[in-house]
UniProtKB/TrEMBL annotation:
Keywords: Membrane, Transmembrane, Transmembrane helix. Pfam families: Gate (PF07670). It comes from Anaeromicrobium sediminis. It comes from the Bacteria. The chain crosses the membrane at residues 7-24, 51-70, 82-97, 103-128. InterPro entries: Gate_dom (IPR011642). This is Nucleoside recognition protein. The lineage of its organism: Bacteria, Bacillati, Bacillota, Clostridia, Peptostreptococcales. Residues 7-96 form the Nucleoside transporter/FeoB GTPase Gate domain.
Amino acid sequence: MGLVRSLVKMTCIIVPIMVALQLLKDYKILDKMAKRLSFISRFFNISQNSIFPLLVGFFIGISYGAGVIIESAESGNMSKKDTFLVVVFLITCHAVVEDSGLFIALGANGWILVSIRVIVAIMLTYIISRRYGLKERMNLKEIKEKA
């Protein structure tokens, strides 16, 4: 019976979230959010086109986010660097709403859970983005010296 109750709780959490996210997508609210969150692209040193896949993976989950990332990368909207940094962030912190809702229903402290995931994801992605930027500058410097 405990398993059935847990499944009912999970269903009551997941279904409304998926409906809400589909509505956000259909009414292009996620696109508007991406424009308002352009500071993220500057902070992580990624293109503006990378924000939408990052938001999708952050809110909906890594599986749906991966589909958006692949589509964006194949269409040329995201560079390899952008794709890599978005994936690093999402590996650390994905499906925040859905996963947190499930863990909270099982008794976890939501604030601690979300805070730790978001902070670690931001720090890790920022550090890697800066190292990636340093590597790019070093490569440009070597190319100029050889020329």
